Structure formats: C-alpha cells, structure tokens
Amino acid sequence: xxxxxxxxxxxxxxxxxxxxxxxxxxxxxxxxxxxxxxxxxxxxxxxxxxxxxxxxxxxxxxxxxxxxxxxxxxxxxxxxxxxxxxxxxxxxxxxxxxxxxxxxxxxxxxxxxxxxxxxxxxxxxxxxxxxxxxxxxxxxxxxxxxxxxxxxxxxxxxxxxxxxxxxxxxxxxxxxxxxxxxxxxxxxxxxxxxxxxxxxxxxxxxxxxxxxxxxxxxxxxxxxxxxxxxxxxxxxxxxxxxxxxxxxxxxxxxxxxxxxxxxxxxxxxxxxxxxxxxxxxxxxxxxxxxx
Length: 291
Description:
CATH class of the largest domain: Alpha Beta
Number of helices: 7
CATH topology of the largest domain: Rossmann fold
Structural class: alpha/beta
Largest sheet: 8 strands, mixed
C-alpha cells in the first residue's frame, strides 16, 4: 500500500469504514485513532450524517484535549465543519441554506418524487429532516437496518427496478432530473446516490474536505500528497457516476491517495485503489501508521 507511506492527515468516512454501524461500539476505532492524534497526525471524519450520530454525539469524551486538537469532523454533506477547542467541538465553517433555500430544496425533491410517480409509476419515499438536503429513497422496500452503508446487491436491484419502470437513462437521468428541477428554482444542486438513496442538496463531501484541508493547510502547510482518503462508497453506480465518497476527490485533494475498503464489485474512479477488507482493513491501516 504505497510502500507503507506515512501520512500527515487521514480523511475517512465513518459508517462502513471506521465502524460497522452507528450503533456499533467505537472502542476499536478510538484505540487506533488515539496514538496518531497524539503524534500530531490530523484525522478527519467525513460523513453525510450529523454530529449526533458520531460516537453517540459525544466523540470528544473519548479523547484528551491534546488529541482533539488534531481531530476534525466534516459532516452533513458539506453543511458542518468542526474543529475542537478546549475539548469541545466548534463549527468553523458551514454551508447551511437559509429558510427560503431549504424550502426550495424540499420543493425540488417533492417535484422529483411526483415526476417519478406520475410518469413512471415509480414509488419513492422522501426524508425531509436533513438540515441542508433531502433523501429520496429509491427502494423503500429494501431495509438496511443499522448497516446504513450501501449493500452488495443494491446496485443490481436498483438497475432492475429502473428498467422495469421504463426509466430510460437510469440513475443518470434521475440525477439530471434533480439538477434540472433545481435550476428552475434558481439553485445549483449537487445530487449524489448510493443506490438506495438519491440525495439532493446544495453541497457535498467535496465541500467538507476542501474546507478542512484548507484549514489544516493554513496551520501546517499540508500538501495533498501527504494525505490519504478512505471510504466504502467509491464504486460506480453507472458510467461516470460514483458513490458519495468519490466526492472527496477534488482539485485541492486529488494529489492524495484514495482507498476503498468495500467488497462491492464495480468500477471506481481512476484515483481510487480498491483494497476491500471493510472496517478491519481501515483499522489495520491506522495501526500501521503508528510510530
């Protein structure tokens, strides 16, 4: 793996990469993170969820103030970017829509939902409770339980379902529909998909990694070549459309090393090395980075 290269910063997804699920014990991840934080390695959790769902909403209780000085959280699809001060998280950058634009996002998602219902008789559910985006459930009958990351058979299930309903262009067409609808409301949407969920909002993980990379760079002079990026949702959904972790690849970060711990077969962005091994592989990497 890049000759056991030592990294100055590690950006990583949470669910499915650092822990098996949000309710799973975090002790293994914490034990692997603490030595690196003590050494001054910056660790950055990048997740679509909010802080309440990271280690029970109190991740700071697992670390000392010194360790927390090197921990960052990029959450909510670009909405929240946290560092820690005096042992507590503080928001140093956000991309939260105002009330008017949040209402527009809700209307955009509802229009997509109704277009699919009326034109294709394709049933979806919508989750409206997110602070900066909505989730359209493309497979309401598929239940993930506590394992919220993409499951191995979901890609084929989605493709079969779209084809059966006559949705020409597949998932790419759904993402185009989201973007087209957004433009009618004067918003540039950044839709992503992990097969089960089409997520529609004005920001993505790209905004998280860029905001945090720039903050660390201002403090340390960090270069992208000194960073690695880990996730389990890089795999291509369709030609040219990749999972949410692919959004960690930006103009600022593309010089880094990108690794996928998912076992799901399929094409990844050319920058990504598929390792497999799930959470155990990532935890093993963290231990291997310790001096």
